[in-house]
Specification:
With about 270 residues, the chain is mainly alpha-helical. It has ten helices and four strands; from the N terminus they run ααααββααααααββ. Strand 1 (about 85-90) and strand 2 form a beta hairpin. The protein is elongated, with a radius of gyration of 27 Å.
Length: about 270
Amino acid sequence: MFTRKPDTELGTLRTLLLVVFVLAIPVALVTTTIRAVISEQRVYDYSVREFDAEAASGIPEPELIRANGDIRDYLAADSSNSLAIRVTDDTGEDVALFNAREVVHMRDVQDLVQVMFTVQMVSVALVLTLAVIMVALWPVRVLAAGLLYGAFLTGTLFAVAGVVALSGFDSAWSQFHGVAFTNDLWQLDPDRDHLIQMFPEEFWFQATTLIAGAVLLEAILMATLATVWLVFVKETPSIARELERVPLPGRAGHSRLTGPDARPAARP
């Protein structure tokens, strides 16, 4: 004998899936955007060129550009190797680009980036999996509503974060490092340390602004598409609803309808 779950259980399941889906959306958007920025060498090269790292570090720009490729590959790799980059300075001497303090800090940064990459993959997989489940179980309007809620949540979070950052980026940046790292190796000297000379705080402000703007545009696009679907697209029956109309076997080998058109089965 076939039974159906009570409507209350289905409502609870739908609510739970929808909540998890909505919460996963901003995580997936933010981490995916950050991953794209970290993987793009032009971002690194922009900092070196825009903020005149050659003059600040005493290392020719071509050498710094070459080093950027090694830095990008190091952050993207899950390895236990240290970041040992050697460059030729403006006197023609072969020197280490980063001192011991910077090397250890970059290892901490690599660990943080790898955690973020893992969160990104999990969150994206979760969003896609839940989207498929929701489309299979319920009308597409439920998925569209979830996307709309997720976009609104993303926009709200970034609006609050933007106000905090703009009111005092230096303080917010320091607080972030205090939470993300368990040591003070991130406190570098711009007169001596090449890492901060290549990537000064102004660069990080611009990079943060770029990421925030990109995520907000993604959220706006998502909200727009979801709204268009909810307003203009006529809903079609879901797979689950269609399956409810398929005849199911009853007693004595006779079929039984479970949908609204069900009729008593004829007796032999």
